[in-house]
Amino acid sequence: MSPESNTPSDRHEVDAWRFTGSFLRNMLSKAIPDEPAYGGIPWTPVSKPLSESKVALLTTAGISMKDDEPFDMEFERQNPTRGDSGFRSLRGDATASDIAANHLHIDTGYIERDLNVALPLARLAELAGEGVVGSSAATHYSIMGFQGVDSSQLEQESAPKIAEALRNEEVDLFLLAPV
Amino acid sequence: MGLVARVVEAAGIPTVTLNMIWRYQKLVGMPRIAAVEHPFGRPYGDVGDRETQSAVLRAALDVFNTAKEAGHIEHLPFRWHEDPKETKWHPADPSPIIALMNSRRKK
């Protein structure tokens, strides 16, 4: 890793390690290969203007509706190299008082006070009201971001189910945000 | 995470991933990245900061329009309002994997 933050540049390049500390930076950096580790990147062209698009959000914060089953933190406590590979559906009108946040790698207290820090449903509804986006989907999604040594269940079971649900709801654009 | 974006994109729905650790792109291969320099747990902005939350959301959505090829990385211009030393994002207790690594280092 070169110290990009010290490199003169016309535009701001995001310092991926600004908040990690050196221990975590070293740990996370080791996972990055020198050459791309994938065969290709999938691509679907955008088919209509933002102002006509139905948008759904996803967070990796381990968020569930209070009337739904929470993400399983006990599994990870018993198996520190693994994480809950499931997903949860969230209502588009959910606020912090409607949800539980379970994620052992961050302070979830901020999300419990204001859901919009990680899943800006209220802000998206405002943009829909202003006509910036066509609409906010009725359903949004959470996974739990820490998958440890095995992300195959997330990729092969949860992700296809999320894709199917998005298609069924005729979502046009999907915005994901890791925490 | 990026894996979910790949699966959804391959299923025919365009995705943008708002990402702090955008350097994982080489590992994952995400279709469109909006890179943001915010602390873990609050990618869109701080508690009650509606202005930043909305601006980051809009900037991330704009990447659907600006990205013209797979793997595009857009660096968003937002700067966090606190110094990293003053920014608290860690959980109260170390995560299980960190606790395990710490116990192994001590041995």
Report on this model:
The complex is a heterodimer of chains A (179) and B (107). By secondary structure, chain A is α/β, with parallel strands linked by helices. Chain A has five helices and seven strands. In chain A, strands 1, 3, 5, 6 and 7 form a five-stranded mixed sheet that branches. Chain A has a two-stranded antiparallel ribbon with strand order 2-4. Residues 1-9 of chain A have low confidence and may be disordered. Chain B is α/β, with parallel strands linked by helices and 107 residues long. Chain B has helices at 2-10, 25-28, 50-66, 96-106, and strands at 15-19, 32-37, 72-79. Chains A and B meet through helix 3, helix 4, helix 5 and strand 7 of A and helix 1, strand 1, helix 2, strand 2 and helix 3 of B. Strand 7 of chain A pairs parallel with strand 1 of chain B, so a sheet runs across the interface.
How are the elements arranged and paired?
The complex is a heterodimer of chains A (about 180) and B (about 110).
Chain A: H1 21-30, E1 54-59, E2 63-65, H2 73-78, E3 87-91, E4 99-101, H3 109-113, H4 121-130, E5 135-136, E6 139-143, H5 152-168, E7 173-177
Parallel strand pairs in A: 1-5, 1-6, 1-7
Antiparallel strand pairs in A: 2-4, 3-6
Chain B: H1 2-10, E1 15-19, H2 25-28, E2 32-37, H3 50-66, E3 72-79, H4 96-106
Parallel strand pairs in B: 1-2, 2-3
Oligomeric state of shown chains? heterodimer
β-strand number of chain A: 7
For the record, give the distance between the C-alpha atoms at the N and C termini of chain A, rounded to a whole number.
22 Å
Task: Round the Cα radius of gyration of chain B to an integer and report it.
Answer: 16 Å
Summarize it.
The complex is a heterodimer of chains A (179) and B (107). Chain A has 179 residues and is α/β, with parallel strands linked by helices.
Key terms:
heterodimer, A: alpha/beta, 5-stranded mixed sheet, 16% strand, B: 107 residues, alpha/beta, globular
